[in-house]
Amino acid sequence: MSKPSLPQGTRDFDAATVRKRNYIFTTIKEVFELYGFQPLETPAMENLDTLMGKYGEEGDKLIFKILNNGLDNAGKADKVKAGFENVMAGRSSKDITERALRYDLTIPFARYVAMNYNQLTLPFKRYQLQPVWRADRPQKGRYREFYQCDADVVGSRSLINELELAAIYATVFQKLDLPVEIRINNRKILTALAAQCGGTEKMIDIAIAIDKLDKIGLDKVKEELAGRGLSDSQTLLIQQFLEIGGTNEEKLARLKSIFAGNSTGQEGVRELEYIIERSQIANPKSQISIDVTLARGLNYYTGTIFEVKALGVQIGSIGGGGRYDDLTGLFGVPDVPGVGISFGVDRIYDVLTELNLFPADVHNGTRLLFFNLGIAEAQKAFELMQELRSAGIACELFHEPVKFDKQFKYADKKAIPYVAILGSKELEAGEIIIKNLHSGEQKQVTFGDLGNYSFE
């Protein structure tokens, strides 16, 4: 029998890890709720047609396809064989797969909006916390199964939405005590750049190449641009654009100069300026900077784009998003504007762990362990334990009457801070001994006063 193992890029989570992750989830959800977002959940799998062609050339390669089951393939032996031949040739085939695991939460959300558009109250503000799957190469901070936490607004073109989403980012990371930089750019600026490089149809090629700048460096980006058909002069123009630096005000001034004759570029610059000028009102402690190298390689972004970087650690982005003004048009409901952001919970977890930023009480589970010292004693201990549970105090009764040493070790391994000792002497006196395992202090408490004892 082979040794059990996990699929590459997936993980088990023990109790301590789950509690830390729930701390992150709860923090994010509370902020989403403060800004008027409501929860939504969608299925783990979508029809393949829903997902394919929505994430660009690179993203489509990372979609986990699901093989059709026996019922789907019943009586289709010849078609299945032909389908496998298509798959081996690098093509998709409905005879082999018609469904896939969701790649992100945005496209399923767009599908949901398209299906329910006439019943929604617009603008519709939703948040979603669910796992997604990508056939990526596992590495630090990059997994094949991971959670996303998204907040999106559809049915509004107001830049107030972008301003609030930036404030949500800032507020969440302030609550997590995690220093970050929120970077923004605008795809209209990239569209204008593409126009100056020979045509807007080159924008996706340019965005995909620029999006890899942090990973492969400028020289490799230039090579990729050349490989995508851009001339030396066009590549030089993009290089000069990517080298724009200085303060936000200096970057805005430079962008205004570059795109003075391009209305699309000017509109993108104005949208950036709106967010920068008002960001301190939305959240005075926010650290937002314009990053002209930010591209977000996904096809559907049309306006402001976001990316969040943790300061003081070497890891990829821990959040990102942007405006997508016709995403539902992919599903037959055109002209529905939208904008959204996503939190990378798994990377946030890794950063908080590396920087030791989880609060001490995040591990809180069982607060009190009742020792098991015999049948009569355990019966009374169980009665007292149920009273404490009714009062919201997490406690346990050791499952069998064994030596103190074994019961103390159990409490230590589970990081239970208090133990309750109820022997025959205490049972007769109507008292119980409460011992603080951190300080070593112990007190005798009457049964009637046990509910008033602080187990903090």
Describe this structure in words.
This protein folds into 2 domains: about 15-65 and about 105-355, 2-Layer Sandwich (BirA Bifunctional Protein, domain 2), CATH 3.30.930.10; about 365-450, Anticodon-binding domain (Rossmann fold, 3-Layer(aba) Sandwich), CATH 3.40.50. The chain is built from 17 helices and 16 strands. The protein has helices at about 15-35, 50, 55-60, 70-75, 75-90, 105-115, 160-175, 185-195, 205-210, 215-225, 230-240, 250-260, 265-280, 345-355, 375-390, 405-415, 425-430; strands at about 40, 45, 65, 95-100, 125-135, 145-155, 180-185, 290, 305-310, 320-325, 340-345, 370, 395, 420, 430-435, 440-445. Helix 1 (about 15-35) packs antiparallel against helix 7 and helix 10 packs antiparallel against helix 11. It is elongated. The two termini are about 45 Å apart.
Physical arrangement of strands within the biggest beta sheet: 1-5-6-11-10-9-7-8
CATH fold-level label of the largest domain: BirA Bifunctional Protein, domain 2
How much of the sequence lies in strands comes to 15-25%
Work out the count of structural domains: 2
Layout of strands and helices, then pairs:
Elements: H1 15-34, E1 38-39, E2 45-47, H2 48-51, H3 56-60, E3 65-67, H4 70-73, H5 77-88, E4 97-101, H6 106-116, E5 124-133, E6 145-154, H7 160-175, E7 180-186, H8 187-195, H9 203-210, H10 213-227, H11 232-242, H12 248-258, H13 263-282, E8 288-290, E9 304-310, E10 319-323, E11 338-344, H14 345-354, E12 368-370, H15 375-390, E13 395-397, H16 404-413, E14 418-421, H17 424-429, E15 431-436, E16 442-446
Parallel strand pairs: 1-5, 7-8, 12-13, 12-14
Antiparallel strand pairs: 2-4, 3-4, 5-6, 6-11, 7-9, 9-10, 10-11, 14-15, 15-16
Helix pairs in contact: 1-7, 1-14, 7-13, 8-13, 9-10, 10-11, 12-13
